[in-house]
């Protein structure tokens, strides 16, 4: 079972149904980088780009989220 997030931003992402892997895909970074960022392991705290992606996700409808993810799909799935 996955650990529940403890940071404010991790909790917000979790409450909005935004998984770490999905957030990593949207940010085009490794999931481990997202995890470190959400834990505030960087000197500047939670990176602003992660905060912005979480807020955007919170504001979107399910249809908008699906479209966003479809646009972020890898170009070559072979």
Automatic annotation (TrEMBL):
It comes from the Bacteria. This is Transcriptional regulator. It comes from Azospirillum melinis.
């Amino acid at each position: 079972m996955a650990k529940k997030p403890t940071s404010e931003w991790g909790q917000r992402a979790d409450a909005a149904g935004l998984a770490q892997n999905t957030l990593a895909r949207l940010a085009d970074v490794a999931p481990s980088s997202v995890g470190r960022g959400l834990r505030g392991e960087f000197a500047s705290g939670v990176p602003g780009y992660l905060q912005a992606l979480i807020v955007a996700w919170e504001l979107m409808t399910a249809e908008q989220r699906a479209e966003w993810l479809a646009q972020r799909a890898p170009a070559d799935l072979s």
